[in-house]
Amino acid sequence: MRVSSKAHYGLRMMTEFAKAYGAGPLSIAEVARVEHLPLAYLEQLASQLRRGGLVDSTRGVHGGYSLARPADQISVLDVVTVIEGEVSPVECVSHGYVTGTCQREGECASRGLWIRLKQSIDAVLSQTTLAELVADQSLIDSIAPAETTR
Amino acid sequence: MRVSSKAHYGLRMMTEFAKAYGAGPLSIAEVARVEHLPLAYLEQLASQLRRGGLVDSTRGVHGGYSLARPADQISVLDVVTVIEGEVSPVECVSHGYVTGTCQREGECASRGLWIRLKQSIDAVLSQTTLAELVADQSLIDSIAPAETTR
DNA sequence: ATAATTCCTACCATGACAGTCGGGATTCTC
DNA sequence: GAGAATCCCGACTGTCATGGTAGGAATTAT
Fold it and tell me: Do B107 and A140 touch (CB under 8 A)?
């Protein structure tokens, strides 16, 4: 029951893209710098995010990535799903589940529980957008700006 | 963001113990039989559940395990926690988190999100008890009893 | 005694995670 | 056109959790 640091990294990268939205593409070298994350690893994650349709890429000298749509239209669930695959506590409640795969299907008492759990997780993650994370960030920075200068 | 099949097995075992509650200890050999799970693996899980204080064990010929307290006083969260450790999407919101371990602490905008997520998961899992799972099970069995005979 | 049980430790195979590395393709700038 | 900055891609690696298996020791009812 945990979010991988992979997805966490992806989310941090996405908030950087969100901050830069509208001001041209942001390179992952820059993201690596401000977030203190390994460049080569971010490259892989960025590719996944692009293939997942969350960002667009621009190659060449002033290239980089930018959000495929405004930050208030990308939820944390979108990001986590692209990086970790569908959020689902057990296979039998995932979207692509084929009826009958689980032999216990008819007699399973806990399926209802897993469905409630999935819905609950999805709700929390889909209610928060990148825009809100960025807003919270600015708020934090405005209160304690000295911290960020190290 | 998934529950391990280990925890799932543990939960299935616990519901068997719940069904047998009051009628003496239930052996894991029996659990393995009715749930079609590997015996040797269940042994390990049963030990964990015992060390976690959820069941009591009786050795010897008519030995086995029985719930340490009534089924309506053991939640799914109890079981999952004993088997998987604390449910926590990221380290910084877990119970044993030491303030300052995460360098981003002051500037982290997503911590609030993870806290909401944890609370949401905990709520769902702690609201369901073994007693409810057993009750649901009986209901299912009474509706479609033919299924279980194969 | 012996059979049924829990208990305990060690072992193992597989796959995910969290990266690193090296090079190729593209595009801007000079 | 050369060079630098960038994205793109595949291969490789070390560590750890998962999902088991195996063997034997301790305990207890019959």
Answer: yes
Please report, rounded to a whole number, the percentage of residues in chain B having pLDDT higher than 70: 94
How wide is the angle at C-alpha B32 spanned by C-alphas B31 and B36, nearest 5°?
Answer: 120
CA–CA separation, A96 and B148 (whole Å): 26
Taking CA–CA distances from A142, the nearest residue in chain B reads B107
User: With contact defined as beta carbons under 8 Å apart, do B79 and B54 qualify?
Assistant: yes
| Strand, coil or helix: B67 | strand
Given a cut of 60, whether residue A147 has pLDDT beyond it is no
B63 touches strand C (CB under 7 A): yes
Q: Does A110 contact B133 at a Cβ distance shorter than 8 Å?
A: yes
Burial B4-31 (b: 16+ CB within 10 A, else e): eeebbbbbbbbbbbbbbbeeebbbbeeb
